[in-house]
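Hi there,

I know you've been waiting on this one. I reran it after we fixed the sequence typo, so this is the corrected version. Both the input and the resulting structure follow.
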Amino acid sequence: MQESILVHTWTDKAFAVVSDLAGMGRFSPENDGGKWLGGASAAALGARFRGRNSNGGYRWSTIATVTAYDAPRLFSFDVTYGTIPVSTWVYDITSSAEGVTITERWTDNRPGWFALLTSPLRRNRQAFTARSMRATLEAMKAELEASR
């Protein structure tokens, strides 16, 4: 699944926002931020991050590993819960005369048995994630355009 938004900003500013996992909580309806691991202090290929999340009364943490870092155009990471694959997130940034288009892609990597165990969080996950991605992109756009 993917969502895109046109933002009146520059590619380097957009990339700084999408690759700031520690600051993602200010945009996302589900992610509450987190902390870089293993001595990392910012996104880089192979860097790991512990994300804090909440949805309704549920709270949990996951580990994200940066799988692509091609500034200022491409940023992606895989999310796991322990050793269980959860998702892949990809941000593509393309420039045009009007600004940049940020495209956010999400792939659900959860095995079926894990979906059953996490059914309260899994219920309507596709619809929730589509709404969440749109809200995240709208919040990024608002911050980026306000700081122009």
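Quick highlight: Helices lie at 11-18, 112-117, 119-122, 125-146.

Best,
R. S.
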